[in-house]
Design goal:
Helix content is 63%, strand content 8%. The chain has 32 helices and 9 strands. The protein has a 5-stranded parallel β-sheet, with helices on both faces. Strands 1-9 form a two-stranded antiparallel sheet. It starts with a helix and ends in a 12-residue tail after the last helix.
Length: 734
Amino acid sequence: MVRVLVRKYLIVSMPREEELFEELLRDALREREVQDSGVHEDYLRSAAEAERAGILSRVQGAADLYDQAVSRTRLEVRLRRRLVAAGAVVLLMALTMAGSSAWSDALKDALSHDRSVSIKSVAGGGLAGMLILTLFAAAVAFVVWCVYYLLSADARAGVPAAKGRQLLVSAGIPYGLVTLLCSILIGIYPTDVVWQLRHDRPLEEIGALGWGQWFTLGALALAALPPLSLRRLASAASRQSLSLAYLIAVLDTRERKRAQEQVEAELREAVEQALVNFMRERISDERTERDFSTALTITDAPGLRQLRAGHEHVPTRADEQLAVLSKGMEGGSIALSGPRGVGKSQLLRNFCKTDPKDPSRPLSLVEPVPVVFDRREFMLHLFYKLCDLVIDARLRTAQEAERHKRSIRYLQTQSDEAALSAGWRSWNLSTRKATSLAEQPQTYPEIVDTLKRFLSRTALELDKDKRLLVIGIDELDRIEPAATARTFLNELKAVFDVPKCLFVLSVSDEALREAELAPVGRRDAFDSAIDEVVRVEPLDQETAERLLGRRVVGLPVPFAALFYSLSGGMPRDLLRTARAAYSYVSTEQTRLLADVTEKLVNREVDRIANTAGGSEERAELAQLFRRDALGEDNRLDGLGDLIHRQAGATGERARLGATLANRAFHLDTVQRIFTNALAEERIREASDPRHPRSFAALARAHREIGTADTLARATLQRVRTAWSLPALPPMPPA
């Protein structure tokens, strides 16, 4: 499958698949981080060639987009060739007809008056014939255009597809009439010219030679070739928006070339990045001895400059759970729950990857939820996107999808008018009656009912090929407060009961907690709408190191543990922390672990001190994190005591004080652990999540701050005791 996609790519840019892969492989091996890794180039080359199919499978999304672009480009090229061929046929037949008719008349006149043929008269007669034929075609096209406009309500409403059909009909009918007329005249005038030249006397009877009918039949066959070939392309072209702009774009080779170059560049970049990431993993695997150095030297880290995961996805336990649950369900809904930044969106989009070449993959659609939503507008938007998906997949319900798209975008108006008039001389009597009907916009229940029926028919059609229809609703946890998210889910669950259609949603922890803590016997909105829940947990240390290994070559274990402890195992924060650390390190200077830790801790302190959101109490307490308030020794443990005293022991201010104090204690713990004296033996012990001094416990304490501050304080206390650090003060009584 991947070979087919790459081979299609090579049709335009490279003559052979081997040359493409070799070129990208050479570019990847030239990366500075790969060259400075110390791993032999021949080993990396052979490993990449052995895993070629696996590497290219990582960029399946980019390959699918390029495959669609290539198919669209080929279709447009074929359409352009057919249109140019049709124009050439018309021009050739018109020139033949006009020239032969002018020669026939000139010969007749010359033979009748016994004089030579005037070339000027032949040219003038030919030009006159061409002008008359052009005016005739233009008049027919204008009449057809007007008639179609009067008969088509969609054309009057300005629907792009209807305007495109109007253009085709207005050009097709004149084409047929002109070619028919030219074919008949081509069967007459050329034979007349031959007859007069043979007998050397004026024409006595039009069409004197009987074999002129074969000229007519040949011309008709030639004229029929472009329309017949266009008819075969009509079904493929119907997947596009057959508008006037699209038909003009077919003839615009520059725009098509720019679009083709763009998708080629995107695919090339994706494949090259997949190769580099594969080599980073191989380099990490080749280094059997883990690097426990407390010194960080940077050569180059282009992987950290990528703000998004792109085509890369590190599988976790949640991927396995989602795959198992989806195989055991023929419909319903699955919720992906977890804190923000844990990777729910990446998991959802990776699960909803659609591969048109793999019939076992589901047909899927992912749509984000706007923060401020309107239930009717979002349902129409989801309906419209689903119609586009069905049309692109060329399902049997594509024509129905086109009708639904038209009804969603345009308000239909129908009018009927009748007039009667009679008059005599200056007296006139007339009567007129007109009726206009405007279609009412669909109500929300009608939209839901229509969408459910369309979903059912589409899902049943996919079920014949043992495929599932999957609709992903992303960023549902952005809707705040949780009550608003529940309202949205109550509206959306009206379509959850469609057989063979699976909905996958990302929900907030707050909403899920409220559903789980609902009193016995009372069903919460989430509990009644969601069939299964997949918990997306933060990364463990091993997975975090694997994720960093795909972005950075040769990252020592202490620094990976530092990034993991400060980010709490959240993928987004993990990469942000690593990116910030590498911004402090230059290519000429080696940074020690204590220096990097101090920079990252100061970064967190400044970020907390500059907190602008929240209540006035939070802003006031956050000001205690200012550098001038901390002093030269930067005592974060003393800052925690100060925050407790300033916040008091009761009320909302005390709760905020406990959260900020725990942040100070957590940063103090990190700064005390990650020093230049951190030994390899202690790092190995702390890498075990079951050990009391584990980095996993330190990351868990980071996640507990703000949601379970008492538990976070207890976790920090256990970690500090295991590392022989000063004890923390107890939490103030509530």
